[in-house]
Design brief:
The structure is a single chain. Helix content is 51%, strand content 18%. It is an alpha+beta fold. Helix 2 packs antiparallel against helix 3 and helix 6 crosses helix 7. It is elongated.
């Protein structure tokens, strides 16, 4: 081992210690203790930390507790917690900046220390030089460790910044929630105030009503006493006799109504008989059977009778129950074939000429046709009834063709066709008309007037009077099932 003189040692010490810049500040008042491990690794001695957990750990712990307890906290407490954590995150960010400055100062110090050791190594020899080289390796290891610490500090700074942004956003959301809950609370308070106001008004109204009832209580008591007295008087009477008297009165009213109807009917028959006697001496008379399926014809019964072509004629339906005669619209010819509507009624024809009116009527009501009801019941068992006929008129004009057409009467519609050609097909509707033909024709008892719609009408001539009357009855029966009343023009149904 080389011995060094005191003078040389003093000179070496003075030369090896270089001046340190004045702008360098130290976080600690002493240099940290290190020891060299295997492979020349610098190991920092563990230091005892009596200051408790770090600020970052406290922030993370508070955030976890806040996340766990946010369901039990109010919105205002939640906002307060977020504000506190935001301040803690800002403080942590400031601490990270201070650490960054301290790290920079440590780099400067290590660089100057390495330069001083390099300078000293050139001046040393032997064992001292080896110690200096070992110190240089330790300084380099400290520089590497400081660089690692800087990386960790940068990562920690990034996490702190991210956490600060999250807490800032959460704080803003919490403030929004506070404002929203505040507005909701104000609305609920206002609603509660209105409810309380309405309750107060209702209580005041109830007080006024109770006061008014107290004022009217004497009148109410008198009214109750009168009602009780009336009930007592009613109980004193025998209710069975009263009920018997009511039944007798009801029966008398029914008998009086029947007598009135019978009296009107007798008066009507008397008038009809008088008119029939007058018809015997009248200028005109009716020919034909007074039954459904026949044709009534007005004929002159005297040579003095004016010609019918010069007279105006109008047919009427006369009912025994009604004093008013019903006009048969369109029946203005000397001949008229009764239809099912005329059964049970008396037919009358008024003949007018120069202000003079002559009336002729049937001797009694029109009788139904024999066997018509049984034939209709047989056809009702079918879903569709078909009748053969010839078109004699179409839209009020004579029809030139005498080809046979088929008249279909169904449950929901009526159709007129010839082979595959369909002349008309319509469902039952209020605009549809079906009745006997009311024109002047020798075969009027076999003819039927059908208007499917307002722009189309037919006069059909059937093969028999029974087919014509059954077709009218079936059509009216099926139409009634469809809530439609089928009749002739201007008929009262």
């Amino acid at each position: 081992m080389t011995k060094v003189s005191p003078e040389v040692e003093e000179t070496m010490e003075m030369e090896s210690i270089l001046p340190v810049s004045a702008d360098v500040s130290f976080v600690s008042d002493r240099f940290p203790k290190y020891k060299l491990g295997s492979d020349n690794q610098v190991l920092e001695e563990p230091k005892k930390d009596n200051s408790g957990p770090t600020l970052k750990e406290v922030v993370e712990q508070e955030t976890t507790q806040l996340s766990e307890q946010h369901k039990r906290l109010s919105v205002r407490d939640l906002a307060s917690k977020f504000d506190k954590n935001l301040l803690a995150a800002a403080k942590l960010s400031e601490e990270a900046k201070i650490r960054e400055v301290a790290s920079l100062e440590g780099h400067v110090l290590l660089k100057k220390l390495r330069d001083a050791l390099e300078h000293l190594r050139g001046r040393m020899a032997g064992q001292n030089k080896e110690d200096v080289e070992k110190a240089i390796s330790m300084v380099e290891a400290l520089a590497v460790k400081l660089t690692q610490k800087e990386g960790e500090l940068i990562q920690e700074k990034f996490e702190v910044k991210k956490l600060a942004n999250f807490l800032k956003q959460a704080s803003e959301d919490a403030k929004k929630l506070v404002n929203q809950e505040k507005s909701f609370a104000c609305a609920e308070i206002e609603s509660a105030r209105l409810v309380v106001q309405r309750i107060g008004e209702a209580l005041e109204e109830q007080a006024r009503v109770s006061q008014a009832s107290k004022d009217q209580s004497p009148d109410v008591e008198e009214l109750i006493e009168e009602v009780q007295e009336a009930r007592r008087i009613k109980l004193l009477h025998q209710p069975t006799k009263v009920m018997e008297m009511e039944h007798e009165l009801r029966a008398l009213r029914t008998q009086i109504r029947e007598k009135c109807i019978f009296s009107v009917k007798l008066q009507k028959e008397l008038e009809i008989s008088k008119m029939a006697e007058e018809n015997k001496s009248s200028l005109y008379a009716l020919d034909g059977s007074q039954a459904l399926g026949s044709c009534l014809q007005i004929r002159p019964s005297s040579d003095k009778a004016p010609q019918l072509s010069k007279c105006s004629i109008q047919w009427y339906r006369v009912s025994l129950e009604c004093t008013r005669n019903e006009v048969i619209s369109g029946a203005k010819k000397p001949a008229y074939a009764p239809e099912p509507f005329d059964v049970g009624r008396i037919l009358q024809a008024n003949i007018s000429l120069n202000g003079q009116k002559i009336a002729v009527m049937t001797a009694g009501p029109i009788d139904p046709a024999v066997g018509l009801e049984s034939h209709m019941e047989m056809l009702l068992r079918k879903s569709n009834a078909e009748f053969n006929g010839v078109i004699s008129e179409m839209n009020g004009q004579d029809y030139s063709s005498n080809s046979v057409h088929v008249f279909h009467v169904g449950k929901t519609r009526m159709k007129l066709s010839r082979g595959w050609i369909t002349k008309a097909r319509d469902i039952y509707s209020p605009s549809m008309l079906v009745c006997g033909y009311r024109g002047n024709s020798n075969t009027a008892a076999k003819e039927l007037f059908w208007q499917p719609r307002k722009s189309l009408s037919f006069v059909l001539k059937f093969q028999s009077e029974r087919d014509r009357n059954v077709a009218i009855l079936l059509a009216r029966k099926y139409a009634l099932d469809c809530n439609v009343m089928l009749a002739g023009p201007d008929d009262q149904v």
